[in-house]
Amino acid sequence: MSYEAIIGLEVHAQLLTRSKVFCGCSAAFGAPPNSRTCPVCLGMPGVLPVLNRRVVEFAIKTSIALQCEIAGGSRFARKNYFYPDMPKNYQISQYELPLARGGVVEFPVNGLTKRVRIHRLHLEEDVGKLLHAGTLQAADYSLVDFNRSGVPLMEIVSEPDIRSPEEAAEYLRQIRAILVYLEVCDGNMEEGSFRCDANVSVRRAGTEELGVKAEVKNLNSFKHVQKALAYEIQRQVRVLQQGGRVVQETRLWDATQEQTFPIRSKEYAHDYRYFPEPDLAPVTISQQWIDEIRLTLPELPQERRARFVRQYGIPDYDAAVLTASKPLAAYYEEVLKAFPEPKTASNWVMVELIGLLNRDGREITDSPIPAAELAALLTMLNRGSISGKIAKMVFEKMYQTGKPAAVIVQEEGLTQISDQNELLRIVDEVLAQHPGPVADYRKGKVQSFTFLVGAAMKASRGKANPKAVNELLRARLEGTPPGGGG
């Protein structure tokens, strides 16, 4: 019996405001524990929250990008529950009147276009952070850092339109890219400024009725999302196949053991006893404000991807990779300003540069090779000043040292040999040193030619012009003048 997974994601994005959502404390990450707090974000008696206007502006900008319907009026509510990292025993959030509803995200997966609908987008305050001593399941004790308490949080809830862990990870990448392009969230999953919870259930393939869902928390990387969902889907299928019943509950993902485990029964909305926040007035959003914000929107990832294909003629795959982040797309276009060969530039950025950056866990913004210097290297290669092999060697030294290509080529004497007399000397030496392959070639064993070309390139330490070496070798072996004349 086959089963189908039904997945909906709740994305939590910390907004890039200087101050918190209801007070003037800094919202920046990385300060000593509990050093960026005040009576408001610590929930002291008698304090009053004041809404940060920039928070609403960022949420409107995101709603426009996601094609959501923005409410003219929305309202904050108190979400009542107890948890050690929440000082007030309630969280200021939005419930029955969120800032926006509807919307859609479209993206390619396995050659097809996937469409995931947005259910709602609302604002809330983040809670503090628990630091556990010991394992997640059995901590010896826990410490609480309230620096994060009150940081503005935007929650984007999808409809249950996702059907696989791969689709879930790609949906998250798309949402993250949009938020980073808009500059409303830095998308840093390691620091927790972009994270998600997943609601997942399974049902028999071909049926319409939804299964019982479990909520999986603690997902802070694309890899963890895929692994956690794959595990949870298999777990639920196994329970059903063994005649059991899936329980609606909240589960935590343990990345070390690569499994989920239950932490509490899943709450329903009425368990939170929502009621309107009495200390905050309803939020009124005018159409004029929405129109003003719409004018500030940058070119978004999907638009930029389409433009790269149209303007530069590169494949869809290349465009998708290069526009995955705003800084990467900007770097690529900066290379093209000085080296207008889109496909060659695309290959070097995607394969050579991103390969080294990924190996070292670095972002494109940390690249030791400026875009202009990569363009200079590719120009030297295109002009024949250096060979492809030398270009890759120079590239790695540029990455290691930060030196310009021209300096490395000059210091190490790596300029490509194109002088015909010098190349003829190298070719003649190779032919004299390898009479066997020469005889084999003249007997019709064409593979021997490749060996002789490699020997000539090795003799020149990779500096010989490959095209010229091919022509001269063939001329010598076939007894014709260089260039193929009779």
Give a description of the structure.
This protein is an alpha+beta fold. The protein contains 15 helices and 17 strands. The protein has 3 domains: 3-292, no CATH class; 301-412, no CATH class; 420-478, Arc Repressor Mutant, subunit A (Orthogonal Bundle), CATH 1.10.10. It is 40% helix and 21% strand. α9 runs antiparallel to α10 (388-401), α12 (420-433) packs across α14 (447-459) and α12 crosses α15. The mean pLDDT is 91.
How would you concisely characterize the structure shown here?
With 486 residues, the chain is α+β, with helices and mostly antiparallel strands.
Q: In percent, how much strand structure appears in the residues?
A: 15-25%
How many angstroms separate the termini?
A: 73 Å
Envelope shape: elongated
Q: Which stretches of 5+ consecutive residues score pLDDT under 50?
A: none
Secondary structure category:
alpha+beta
Largest sheet, strands/sense/barrel: 10 strands, mixed
What average pLDDT do the residues reach?
91
Gyration radius, in Å: 30 Å
Total number of beta strands: 17
Contiguous helical run count:
15
* Count of discrete domains: 3
Q: Helical content, roughly?
A: 25-40%
Give a topology summary.
Layout: E1 3-14, H1 53-65, E2 69-70, E3 73-74, E4 76-80, E5 90-94, E6 100-101, E7 104-109, E8 112-125, E9 129-134, E10 139-145, E11 152-158, H2 165-182, E12 194-204, E13 214-219, H3 222-241, E14 249-254, E15 259-265, E16 275-276, E17 283-284, H4 287-294, H5 301-312, H6 316-322, H7 326-338, H8 342-360, H9 371-383, H10 388-401, H11 405-412, H12 420-433, H13 435-442, H14 447-459, H15 466-478
